[in-house]
Amino acid sequence: MSDNRALQRVNILVNHILQSSPTSSSNLSLTREICLQYSPPELNESCVFDVKEMRKLLDGHDVVDRDWIYGLMTQSNLFNRKERGGKIFVSPDYNQTMEQQREITMKRIWYLLENGVFQGWLTESGPEAELRKLALLEVCGIYDHSVSIKVGVHFFLWGNAVKFFGTKRHHEKWLKSTEDYVVKGCFAMTELGHGSNVRGIETVTTYDPTTEEFVISTPCESAQKYWIGGAANHATHTIVFSQLHINGTNQGVHAFIAQIRDQDGNICPNIRIADCGHKIGLNGVDNGRIWFDNLRIPRENLLNAVADVSSDGKYVSAIKDPDQRFGAFMAPLTSGRVTIASSAIYSAKVGLATAIRYSLSRRAFSVTANGPEVLLLDYPSHQRRLLPLLAKTYAMSFAANELKMIYVKRTPETNKAIHVVSSGFKAVLTWHNMRTLQECREAVGGQGIKTENLVGQLKGEFDVQTTFEGDNNVLMQQVSKALFAEYVSCKKRNKPFKGLGLEHMNGSRPVLPTQLTSSTLRCSQFQTNVFCLRERDLLEQFTSEIAQLQGRGESREISFLQSHQLAEDLGKAFTEKAILQTILDAEAKLPAGSVKDVLGLVRSMYALISLEEDPSLLRYGYLSRENVGDVRREVSKLCGELRPHALALVTSFGIPDSFLSPIAFNWVEANAWSSV
Amino acid sequence: MSDNRALQRVNILVNHILQSSPTSSSNLSLTREICLQYSPPELNESCVFDVKEMRKLLDGHDVVDRDWIYGLMTQSNLFNRKERGGKIFVSPDYNQTMEQQREITMKRIWYLLENGVFQGWLTESGPEAELRKLALLEVCGIYDHSVSIKVGVHFFLWGNAVKFFGTKRHHEKWLKSTEDYVVKGCFAMTELGHGSNVRGIETVTTYDPTTEEFVISTPCESAQKYWIGGAANHATHTIVFSQLHINGTNQGVHAFIAQIRDQDGNICPNIRIADCGHKIGLNGVDNGRIWFDNLRIPRENLLNAVADVSSDGKYVSAIKDPDQRFGAFMAPLTSGRVTIASSAIYSAKVGLATAIRYSLSRRAFSVTANGPEVLLLDYPSHQRRLLPLLAKTYAMSFAANELKMIYVKRTPETNKAIHVVSSGFKAVLTWHNMRTLQECREAVGGQGIKTENLVGQLKGEFDVQTTFEGDNNVLMQQVSKALFAEYVSCKKRNKPFKGLGLEHMNGSRPVLPTQLTSSTLRCSQFQTNVFCLRERDLLEQFTSEIAQLQGRGESREISFLQSHQLAEDLGKAFTEKAILQTILDAEAKLPAGSVKDVLGLVRSMYALISLEEDPSLLRYGYLSRENVGDVRREVSKLCGELRPHALALVTSFGIPDSFLSPIAFNWVEANAWSSV
């Protein structure tokens, strides 16, 4: 087992400590000196690559601005600064009630506003301004998901809805005042009875030509607006999503602006508001419920970029097809999935940085009689738990950056691709975050249960991501349906595949070698080939199964439902391949050197752990039993090779110490009586 | 696809509703009547078996006493009764601060005490008394994990330690006063520096023959007692685990009784106590930290069932080997793993009852143009998410009951088997609970985020189970090491296997049919054969790999660490087979009839989903690719066949409505404005 460096390290350490401390077990505990001491991981771990350079790659953009806002938050007393073990930490006090968390979250946002953080967020445009905004939002979310969600609802849901669904009259009236928080916006789309299925919402708006007003009403309890962030306490205005009925015809879902509170915070007439109550996380966000009692709003409050109603009550839209109209309304909301995917990965980074730093200072059990205890991360099983998740987090960092880039550079032509990619990435990245946090929580043992240590708390804070802005399972089905449509369309028109990364299907089916050596397994071409083969074959299987079912008389919808397992496998295969491509692209751009070398190891770990974890490789015969044995052995080897870089890899996340938690540093001192 | 009954149901429903409501989509939302209505699942679902009989099987024992304590809690205002949608619910208010949750938890325990719940818990003995106690504790945990943990620490850790580690003098002095809560006990084993590795604790106790006292000290910060439930606020006494140094020789870990607070709640001299702080769950439990500053306790306070120190300071023990002595100290603690495993399954039941009831009243999307929305549980993918977890929960119910039975009937001879089985069951059942709750949380969408709806909150409340009383990964390794030792011992002595369920290895290797029909897959003999084959082969592979590594000069410990993946596969194979056996045994005892029939379906689902989810079947060639395709298809068929029984199966859990949550019932009414 010469390749298992970790165990060599254990053995060396054991010998070293046994030689230097010849005390017998019988009096081990008698002297104070041999009590457990904290030793900073930096003392024992080396770093072979430039951490700052790696950090720039991972953050991708606006590193200086990120550091600026990290600093802003650390300086203020509003961010719950506390000293633990001689270090300053900032993170919310999660022992506060919902009411307290909401108030302090709003105060934190005021502070950021006063310090100019939100300047230009709605009044500046272009890819650079958008990226900067995304970077600042990401850092808000690293401090506390409630801050980023509350800011996100105001700017990305309310603000962007005004910007994208509205026209000049709305922009002039609302954008600057939103940026200055003179109005506080919320976004009333979801109802008690309808979440992911927006088309089914039951709120009804009619038009009264005599007063030139729209009349919004909540016809029944299931139509109450639900989960509306900001509605319970702070928002003054909302976007209302509603069926628009004109002269007895339902024109489908449209968006309107309604004021719900006056500037003093009193709820407006014809509006009822209730609280959604205490949640398992995100208690800094005041989610509320809204009922509209024939609320009258001016005709101009229809956000009319897609469709309008004339003063005499005629419905006008350039888009005749209601489905396309609905799609146009939903398209700008993609920003939600972009920010969710990206923030999920930053959350995973906090978890991994904490768990890996702790595993480099915490010991448990010894492997020789009376020998010293072994560092957690020197156990092969502990490496196997954390290092593959670390590699995935790296790969998904690049994926999130790529998603942001295609989003900020979007054109009408790229809308479909953005929808598909953002759906897949949102689902896979948020599931990855939840899994990573759970593994990190267990890997740090009981310490993960303390909210102060964040790892466990983040699970509750980020859990909602797997179902909001589209249930992950529904999103994955949408990915597969889109691939299906693309496949059918290309085959029908006998045209080559173009877009969605399917171009590889124009070539011949990749042939994999029967024998997999270590160098083959680490070769990017081989990795790409397996991922392409899997995607291609699953797409073919899926379309063929759907065709069979339709051939037996089933409707297309029913056929999709029945083929859900193939659809899930395909959605995953598509997304994992797209992620692999992003880390390969990042690697390709680098000059030769240690950053590129280590990133190559990380990429191979990402590729091989994805194969190792996917039973479909064996199930559908892409790899033989011998092959998957080789993959598993290679993953173990990579664990050993990544182990020496673990500290540097999490340091490269660029998250300041103060945004991690006490167990990532001197947890003995942090728990000392002198700190009580 | 004639076997997919669920889709037939969808089609029938679609036709039914389309016929009965010929309104066109254009004015669907104009009339109030067609708004979404709650329809109780009971209206549409049939029940073909006797739910009461099934409930008796699942609960296994003390059904009447369970109902009594459910009733006690529902009657009292202390349990946070509230009305939602016309029904009464009881569950803690999780928006309370830690301090408030601790106080109300203690008050709830006083109430249970006053109502005689704890009568005989320490003063009565025998299997029946023990089972009754376990049943009552389980129901406490269904209300709130904090209540059961706080009661469990007092009775099962403090109380049982006095009972099992102590002798007559301790029993007379402490047992009755513990039962009456005159003393409030806690259990100081874990330290900041040592959790799962109890042997490594650093607290030191010496003996002073001049005063006939032990002197307990915390020699350094890492030796502070940590996570001690009850220590922060309420406990008056504690068991202290400490290294015992007699005349310069460390005799290993021993347990002592120390008073830490007087009856007025003042902390005693030479004791320092600090809080562990806010947690992601279990905030009703006052976890604290304790430092001992040369605390002097009478010689009689050594719990001396295993070893004693004479008045003149001589160490006396009938067990000479320190390892065996340590083992004797730990053995009675198995009760912790028994109660954890069992309560994990009741938590999963709360999650599943809620998610399945919700999925029988919540609709989303339609499968035909303008058609009605489909019930969540009529989607094949939703069935696939929840019904296999339901079947596993059933199987694990029987497993937990079996574990309790072997525990209450324990003899010195069964200690090893109990240790191995309880380790495996604790790990597998608690992981299953976490996974089930996560799936249920996502399956109910955003509603799972509200703490009032429990599903999401339970994740935080029960998360600690995967690492306390032994980290799950460590426990699984212990299972495999025990199997290894058994294997080596039998082979060396050329004796047949006896115990740990390994008897099947005395026979010939099972041969599986190459073609798997539906009836083969559902046959208990086939299922047993696959599970046995997998266990047998993995055990052989594991021992052979260890032998190879040792042959290359590695130590046994290092070899185990390197073979961790095979060890994990083996631990899982052992535990899953043991679980299968318990549901097969339960089924075998039943007379022919509908309960037996449905339980047979559930058992087949448990067996097949375990195979479907385990990649080692393909990896190691127990099943062919065609075989696993057959397994997957059979799981889908079973989903369709279990779907009609879903409501009855969760009703059989016997959990009163008031202990579930509003989304399990009329969630429209519960959210109505009239309820605000």
From TrEMBL, chains A, B:
Q: Is the Oxidoreductase keyword given for this protein? A: yes
Cofactor(s) the protein needs: FAD
Q: Acyl-CoA oxidase C-terminal domain: which residues?
A: 529-660
Q: Kindly indicate whether the keyword Oxidoreductase belongs to this entry.
A: yes
Residues of the Acyl-CoA oxidase C-alpha1 domain: 333-483
Q: Which UniProt keywords apply?
A: FAD, Flavoprotein, Oxidoreductase
Q: Give the top-rank taxon of the lineage listed in the UniProt record for this protein.
A: Eukaryota
What region holds the Acyl-CoA oxidase/dehydrogenase middle domain?
186-294
Query: What Pfam family is a match, any one?
Result: ACOX
What the record says about family reads: Belongs to the acyl-CoA oxidase family.
Q: What is this protein called?
A: Acyl-coenzyme A oxidase
The protein's organism comes out as Camelina sativa
The major lineage groups are: Eukaryota, Viridiplantae, Streptophyta, Embryophyta, Tracheophyta
